[in-house]
Design a protein that fits this description.
alpha/beta, about 25% strand, about 35% helix, nine-stranded mixed sheet, about 260 residues, Rossmann fold, 8 helices
């Protein structure tokens, strides 16, 4: 039996290794190559559509944590105002600069919790899946300005917690951010959370995502100590659609009076 177990481990390692190696080369923040399928209803909002609506009436916008600039380039394709993007990761900042240069969008490498911009500078602050400080956002927004953010909710991939007890729990971020904006003096127009079901084509897709988001499971080692729990995940969570998990998202839209 031990020999059979070792052979099974070896087969799993060979199967997962290409996803781990691909994750090591990951830059930017484009996950379109990940094969997933939504099961059931989707989100009741469309982040891109609402961001474009807000951009249409903003003269100066900031995108916090722009990644490789892929999304902002799409959002600003027809934008006629000024825009600037911040990105804390040194590897991503030059990628974003290249992606946004044709749109004349400046990219500033900066920590997302300490924004290097003047008070009351922006009509709009956008943030998709990057940490933020409500007080800092309030500071850089001009009176009448809006912040619009989509973030990962608390129930993200909760099915993995029994297999990985050290999985991070970032707490009730929706409540924390909404309280922070209100405490700073802003009016929260919308704060909503929703969980949806998604199936990933196979275990390799999930391993890839866990590798490119190392904060999810600290010291994640899919080819070492985490191989056995990953195999149990595959055994217990695989459905006819793939490895089925909960994706959790929330949005907040708030305005500075």
């Amino acid at each position: 039996m031990p020999g059979a177990a070792r052979e099974a481990d070896s087969d799993s390692i060979d199967r997962l290794r290409p996803y781990v190696e691909r994750a090591r080369a990951f830059v930017g923040w484009n996950l379109e190559r990940v094969s997933s399928k939504r099961i059931g209803p989707g989100l009741p909002w469309d982040y891109k559509r609402r961001a474009k609506e807000l951009l249409a009436r903003a003269s100066y916008a900031l995108d916090v944590g722009t990644g490789g600039g892929e999304l902002l380039a799409e959002l600003c394709d027809a934008y006629r105002g000024r825009a600037v993007a911040s990105e804390p990761w040194a590897v991503n900042a030059p990628i974003a600069k290249r992606a946004l240069s044709d749109l004349r969008i400046e990219v500033v490498r900066a920590h997302s919790l300490r924004l290097p911009f003047q008070d009351d500078a922006f009509d709009l602050v956008l943030d998709r899946h990057e940490e933020m400080d409500p007080d800092e956002v309030h500071r850089v927004l001009a009176p009448g300005g809006t912040v619009y953010t989509q973030q990962i909710g608390r129930n993200e991939w909760n099915e993995l917690r029994p297999f990985f007890p050290r999985m991070q729990d970032f707490g009730p971020l929706l409540d924390r951010y909404a309280r922070g904006f209100r405490r700073a003096g802003m009016i929260v127009a919308r704060a909503e959370t929703r969980d949806i079901r998604v199936a990933y084509r196979g275990l390799g897709e999930l391993v890839y995502l866990l590798c490119v988001s190392p904060w999810t499971i600290p010291d994640f080692n899919p080819l070492g100590r985490d191989l056995a729990p990953l195999r149990r995940v595959e055994e217990r969570l695989t459905t006819p659609d793939g490895v089925a998990l909960t994706e959790s998202r929330f949005i907040i839209e708030a305005r500075k009076p």
